[in-house]
Design brief:
The complex is a heterodimer.
Chain A: E1 2-10, H1 15-24, E2 30-37, E3 43-51, H2 54-66, E4 70-75, E5 81-92, H3 98-107, E6 111-115, E7 119-126, H4 128-138, E8 143-148, E9 152-155
Antiparallel strand pairs in A: 1-3, 1-4, 2-3, 5-7, 5-8, 5-9, 6-7
Chain B: E1 3-5, H1 6-16, E2 21-25, H2 31-36, E3 45-48, H3 52-66, E4 70-74, H4 78-82, H5 84-92, E5 97-103, H6 119-123, E6 129-132, H7 139-151, E7 158-163, H8 164-168, E8 170-172, H9 192-204, E9 208-212, H10 214-218, H11 222-232, E10 236-238, E11 253-256, H12 263-271, E12 274-278, H13 284-287, E13 299-304, E14 318-321, H14 324-334, H15 344-356, H16 370-380, E15 386-389, H17 393-401, E16 410-411, H18 422-432, E17 438-443, H19 444-447, H20 454-459, E18 464-470, H21 475-484, H22 500-506, E19 510-514, H23 517-529, E20 533-539, E21 549-550, E22 559-560
Parallel strand pairs in B: 2-3, 2-4, 4-5, 5-7, 6-7, 9-10, 9-12, 10-11, 12-13, 13-14, 15-16, 15-17, 17-18, 18-20, 19-20
Antiparallel strand pairs in B: 1-8, 21-22
The chains are: A alpha+beta, B alpha/beta.
Chain lengths: 168, 568
């Protein structure tokens, strides 16, 4: 099963290796990993997405809890949550496809962030499904390069939740 | 506040932490630490080991015998990598050691400088935590954190890497009074709801058994365990690491369980209706490894300080996260005044299993059986003697035949199974308890892995006995080849062995040898009563096998019993 795990950790060297090491020790792959500072500069937030045996992932989460540098862990998998990913995608822009690319970007609410003589670079934010659908649709036009942030996730505010369609 | 260099802060902080022994070996980047060491004479005793692996096992043995953290000091690169086996050994058995390594100066980190290795990266998976110190002023605080982390919660090793420029840097000595780590809050008391649930389960159980592990020893919970077992009349079995936590001469004791556990213990666990596990982690050697068939009719209460052990191998019905001593006190407090219990049938059943297949041996031939040798040792050593075994057949026989009645008297590498652990660990135990009898029980295979420390032991004029059981083989390897590989004895026999008596004498120790059963007891007695380091080489039969045995992956009621005529 796919798990989205959120960790608050000390913002210092080596912490990411400790976190990643628990996965490599079990032969598990991390699908995506996002790390950045929180409002408190001493703390980083990690959002980690992995797929694997629930039982083993539960063990990994317990081990996270044991780590001195891990302040707090939450498995968001069964929670109502917002998940977003940002992607930069550079797509070939020929005379014949330029209009179609811009139309698609408009439908997906993507932004054009760079225009070259032979390509457009688009920026899109969305959940994994939306991002993947966008990539699939642009595929025939010729994708030159993509860069994805990996998922970031947050639990919804239980009292005042206003889920958009397609959110978890 | 006094100004001093990092090297001096190192010793000042050790003294503040109550550390008086350091096991180590000097070299390149820690030379300044060794340069200031003589200033602390009388306060810090340094034991110059002959190998850094020996130093780590000594620190580990010291920690296991005393409950206080053991300290290692060595340089970078090969010295640090030499400590890795010792660190992993300590981690698997939850032993608090703190390893201090020298490191190349900060600007050279990552440059492949001479004797550089990534100590932090290499030891990350086998320590509870590790630190690279970047400023001298941070060193005392880091050390305090290291000792706190190593010895609190589930005890474990911690490594502190000290670059040369930090060792040389001068600054104020600032030793904080208190340590606060926002990401580290080890459990203490159990959840009262879980305590009540456990009490209800215990009171309605008909065939309960206590499955005790090393956690009882780390938590110093033996008195509470005894009171708890007696109040409820619950039989007690023990893992390898738990031996000594409960007196073997107590009528409720059912002996060790597991792969080479007693028939009665394994049958009792398999047939019980309530397993109360305290400070044990249900590993494959303790349960046979067939987790699906583990104790099929039983509900399971699991008391442990480490949340990651809960539901790891066995799914439990009532986990209690906490310190074994505190949880046992809570359970005792929660018991009703009057307890209705009828254990007659259950205890009679266990007794019957014990009578059917008792732990026994039959010393008849002219070759010494290791079982006989260990039983004899058990009869002639002091009640509070510390027995440190190595790894292999003799280790299992020590567990089966030596009668341990006190916590911290049985020391062995259970989890990692590190051959070569025994002798240096025995030395560490002797440094911790100089007035106690300490015996290292080793094999010819294990002893050869760290025998260089004989020099260290003689140098420190230790009174230490080594009982070296020589069967000319890697005995346990040979046993598996006998049982599971059609007797294909590939690479298990030693073509050449040293003359162990002469070897001991060459280091200035006393060497004795015995090869006839009738001379065994007198030779052991002579060795035990001789001052100094004494190595007694006992020539034993290589054909003897450790029984009973649960084949790997087997269930606890599925044991292979002895069939050879030598062993009953």
């Amino acid at each position: 099963m796919r798990h989205t795990i959120s960790l608050f950790v000390d913002n210092e060297s080596g912490v990411l290796s400790r976190v990643a090491g628990l996965f490599s020790a079990r032969g598990f792959n991390i699908e995506s990993l996002n790390v950045a500072e929180t409002l408190d500069p001493d703390t980083s937030r990690i959002t980690l997405v992995t797929t694997g045996d629930d039982f083993i992932i539960e063990q990994v989460i317990k081990r996270f809890n044991n780590m001195v540098n891990v302040i707090w862990v939450d498995d968001l998998t069964d929670e109502t949550r917002v998940e977003r990913e940002m992607i930069l995608i550079r797509v070939e822009a020929k005379e014949s496809t330029r209009a179609e690319i811009l139309r698609m970007a408009d439908i997906f609410r993507a932004k054009v962030v760079d225009v070259g003589s032979e390509s457009y670079t688009l920026e899109l934010t969305g959940d994994k499904e939306k991002v993947n659908a966008f990539i699939d649709l642009l595929e025939p036009m010729g994708i030159k390069e993509i860069a994805r942030t990996g998922t970031v996730a947050m639990k919804r505010d239980a009292k005042n939740s206003n889920a958009e369609e397609g959110d978890k | 506040m006094a100004r001093m260099i990092g090297a001096e802060m190192f010793f000042e902080t050790l003294i503040e932490e109550g550390i008086d022994v350091v096991f180590g070996l000097p070299g390149g980047y820690v030379l300044k630490v060794y340069d200031v060491l003589p200033k602390f004479e009388g306060k810090i005793k340094h034991v110059l080991t002959r190998h850094e692996q020996g130093a780590t096992h000594m620190a580990d043995g010291y920690a296991r015998a005393s409950g206080k953290p053991g300290v290692v000091l060595c340089t970078s690169g090969p010295a640090a990598t030499n400590t890795v086996t010792g660190i992993a050994t300590a981690q698997m058995d939850s032993s608090p050691i703190v390893v201090f390594t020298g490191q190349v100066p900060l600007p050279y980190l990552g440059s492949d400088a001479f004797q550089e290795a990534d100590h932090i990266g290499i030891t990350r998976p086998c320590t509870k935590h590790n630190y690279l110190v970047r400023k001298a002023i941070d060193l005392p605080k880091t050390m305090k954190e290291a000792f706190y982390i190593a010895s609190s919660g589930r005890p474990s090793p911690v490594l502190v890497d000290m670059p040369k420029d930090v060792i040389l840097e001068e600054d104020e000595l600032v030793i904080p009074d208190k340590i606060s780590l926002r990401g580290y809050k080890p459990p203490t008391k159990g959840d009262p709801k879980q305590i009540q649930k456990a009490v209800d389960m215990i009171l309605k159980s008909k065939r309960p058994i206590i499955f005790g592990g090393g956690g009882i020893i780390h938590a110093e919970a033996s008195p509470e365990l005894k009171e708890f077992a007696h109040k409820l009349e619950i039989p007690v079995t023990s893992t390898l690491m738990g031996l000594g936590a409960y007196p073997s001469n107590d009528p409720l004791f059912v002996h060790m369980l597991g792969m080479h556990g007693s028939y009665a213990a394994n049958m009792a666990v398999h047939n019980s209706d309530l397993v109360i596990s305290i400070g044990a982690r249900f590993d494959d050697r303790a349960t046979g490894g067939n987790f699906d068939e583990f104790s099929p009719d039983a509900e399971i209460i699991h008391i442990d300080i480490d949340p990651s052990t809960i539901d790891k191998n066995i799914i439990v019905h009532c986990p209690i996260l906490g310190h074994a001593k505190l949880v046992l006190q809570q359970l005792l407090d929660a018991l009703p005044e009057k307890i209705e219990k009828d254990r007659k049938e259950w205890r009679a059943q266990i007794e019957e299993w014990d009578k059917k297949h008792p732990m026994s041996y039959n010393q008849t031939g002219d070759k010494i059986l290791t079982t006989y040798a260990i039983d004899t040792l058990s009869n002639i050593t002091n009640d509070d003697a510390i027995i440190v075994s190595d790894v292999g057949q003799h280790q299992m026989w020590v567990a089966q035949f030596y009668k341990f009645n006190h916590p911290r008297t049985h020391i062995t590498s259970g989890g990692l199974g590190t051959m070569g652990f025994g002798f240096p660990a025995a030395m560490g135990a002797k440094f911790a308890c100089p007035d106690r009898q300490v015996v290292c029980v080793s094999g010819d295979g294990s002893f050869q892995m760290n025998m260089q420390e004989l020099a260290t032991a003689v140098e420190h004029k230790m009174d230490l006995t080594i009982m070296l059981l020589n069967n000319g083989h890697h005995g346990m390897v040979r046993q598996w080849q006998t049982m599971f590989f059609d007797g294909n004895y590939s690479a298990s026999r030693f073509g050449v062995l040293p003359d162990f008596v002469m070897l001991a004498e060459s280091f200035g120790a006393k060497g004795l040898r015995v090869d006839r059963p009738e001379d065994l007891e007198s030779t052991l007695k002579e060795g035990l009563s001789t001052k100094g380091v004494v190595l007694i080489e006992v020539m034993v039969d290589c054909e003897e096998l450790v029984y009973p045995m649960i084949a790997p992956g087997g269930a606890m009621n599925d044991m292979i019993m002895a069939t050879t005529p030598d062993v009953a």
